[in-house]
C-alpha cells in the first residue's frame, strides 16, 4: 500500500533534515524508538531504503532524496489548504502579497495605489522576504500572490502575468575604480580580482562554486559591498535599498529580468483576480504611453 500519512511525512522530513534519529526525535517531541520504527515501516511499505544508517547518524539514499523533495511539497500543500480554508472564512482579511525586499519598489507602490483606488477591494498586506522565498510562501499558503522575477525565481506550477522587463546593474563600493564607469560588461565584472561576486543560494539551497562570500539576506550583501568585500549583478530596480556607500553601474550584456505577478493556479479568490487585472492594466497603460517600453521597476 503506497498511502503515506502526513504524520509519517513529518517524521521522515525531520530525520532527513537532521540526518540523526536522536536529534529528529527531540525536534518532534517524541522518543527515538517509535520514530525509528515509523521510518522502517515506511521503507517496508515503499519497498526502498530511505536512509543509510551508521553510528554517527543517517544519510539519504537516492530514493530518500526523491521522497524529501516530494514530502516537502505534500506537507506545504496540506498546510496551504488549512491556511486558505481558515482565511476564506474571514471576509475582512487582507490580501497577502509577498515580494523580495527592495525589488521592484516603484512597480509595487504603483500597484498598491492603483488597487486601493478601486471600490470594494480589500487591503493588501505586503510580506517582504529574502531572495527566492516567494515560491515557498505561495505554496504553503502564507501568501496569496507574489511579485517574482524570471529567470531567477521558481515559477513552476504558478499562474503568471508578465509586468515589466529591466536590465541589470553591478552594485559596487562607492570608492572602487569601477564605480566611476558609465557601464560595464559581464566579463569585466567577473574579472575584478579584489571584488569576487557574492554567491546567492540556488533553489535547492546549495551555493555555486566561487571565491565570493555566501550571502542569503539583503542586509548581509549591503554591508559586504559597503566594506569593499564583494559585488553583485542585480536587477536595476533593486537599487531601492542601495546605501550611500554603494554605486550601481549598468551591465550592458547582462540578461534582462522580467518581473511577473504570480498566484497558485488553484486560487479562486476574486481579490487575487482583481489584483492581477490591476497589474495588467498598469502594465498596458505604461506600454501605451509615448516613449515607454516597459513599466519602470
UniProtKB/TrEMBL annotation:
<dbReference type="InterPro" id="IPR000847">
    <property type="entry name" value="LysR_HTH_N"/>
</dbReference>
<protein>
    <submittedName>
        <fullName>LysR family transcriptional regulator</fullName>
    </submittedName>
</protein>
<dbReference type="GO" id="GO:0032993">
    <property type="term" value="C:protein-DNA complex"/>
</dbReference>
<dbReference type="Pfam" id="PF00126">
    <property type="entry name" value="HTH_1"/>
</dbReference>
<feature type="domain" description="HTH lysR-type">
    <location>
        <begin position="4"/>
        <end position="61"/>
    </location>
</feature>
<dbReference type="GO" id="GO:0003677">
    <property type="term" value="F:DNA binding"/>
</dbReference>
<dbReference type="GO" id="GO:0003700">
    <property type="term" value="F:DNA-binding transcription factor activity"/>
</dbReference>
<comment type="similarity">
    <text>Belongs to the LysR transcriptional regulatory family.</text>
</comment>
<dbReference type="InterPro" id="IPR036388">
    <property type="entry name" value="WH-like_DNA-bd_sf"/>
</dbReference>
<dbReference type="Pfam" id="PF03466">
    <property type="entry name" value="LysR_substrate"/>
</dbReference>
<keyword id="KW-0238">DNA-binding</keyword>
<keyword id="KW-0804">Transcription</keyword>
<keyword id="KW-0805">Transcription regulation</keyword>
<dbReference type="InterPro" id="IPR005119">
    <property type="entry name" value="LysR_subst-bd"/>
</dbReference>
<dbReference type="InterPro" id="IPR036390">
    <property type="entry name" value="WH_DNA-bd_sf"/>
</dbReference>
